[in-house]
# Entry
Amino acid sequence: MKGIEREVRAHLPWAVRKYAKAETGRFVLRMAEEDAEAFEAASKKITRTVATLETLPVLPREAEDVLAISSRERHKWLKDGRLQSIGTRTVKMRGRSKSVTFHVFDPRHIEDVLDHDLPNIWREQDAEEVTRNRRRGANKAARTRADKDQKRLGKDVAEGDALEGWDAFEDEGLLR
# Structure
């Protein structure tokens, strides 16, 4: 709703913006009776803007709110290609020297992701991947420790800590 309210207010004149407010399922415009002409003009402009809302791209914060995801998940899924961007927007914020660039999304794609409950499926896939990676890391660490132990034992034997019966084993020529 916040994004819709911002978009509608952006198309209204400065003097009328404070009278427009988005509520659940509707847009309210409250003005004094003396401002009937301004009310009619603003009402028509709001109607036109609301009619074009379906074609406007979805901003990152709005996508997070609609899909109930975190910004970390949005970044990860965007990088993986699960969330599809329709382009980027660059905005120069007031008071900042640098511009901010962010991805925007197609509203139909966001709706499709929401309808198929893909965020929950993607979270499950990510959890399985984390489990696999942890197992792989634990196995690698175990192999590394075993290799170190083998090297240490090999050094000890080479330095003269001979095992009992080693000479007899060596005399039979099995080490050649």
The first helix runs from residue 2 to 10.
